[in-house]
Amino acid sequence: MSSRLPLRRTVARSAALGVLLAATALAAPSEAHAGPEQIAATSVDTDVEAQPKTVAKPITLEELPPAWVLPVSGYHLTGTFGASSSLWSSTHTGLDFAAPTGTPIRSVAAGVVTESGWDGAYGNKTVVELPDGTQLWYCHQNTLTVGVGEQLAAGELLGYVGATGNVTGPHLHLEVRPTPDVPVDPYTALTEHGLAP
Ligand SMILES: [Zn+2]
Questions:
Q1: Which residue, 34, 119, 162, 178, is the most exposed by fewest CB within 10 angstroms?
Q2: Is residue 49 located within the same domain as residue 90?
Q3: How far is the CA of 139 from the centre of ligand 1 (A)?
């Protein structure tokens, strides 16, 4: 008898404690919930202050920068793809942009530099490989400014126009090679990317 009562009381206390714990457990999430709300409210205030600097007008498709850009400015085309000349052992495998020595050459598209150096008739040559494996060759450069392994954005400087290799005057000889051994017409490739060389 005397041992039952304390047991009941213990059970009762345990039950009460259980309720208390449950109540605490119920209270805890709402307290935890209140915390982040206050933090969020503070963050919103900060954002509101920063808003005038960060708000941008909606961008339409026409305003997005093109994925490809022309490699030089102030040029004229002097040699087209497939043309014949005593300068070349086969037909012309690129597109020639005649421009004064020292004219900056910019990467047509984003890619990684896989070659940079002397290549006989091509003179000083830089090869940039695009993510899809297409190679872009920039030949006859006066000065090379990028090294193998460098990641270039479209429009980034990679060298300067020159007259190195087999040439009659300063120009950029550009080649587009979807597979390393098969050059395609750069003029067509550029126009397919929305450019008018
Ligand atoms: Zn050429």
A1: 34
A2: no
A3: 8
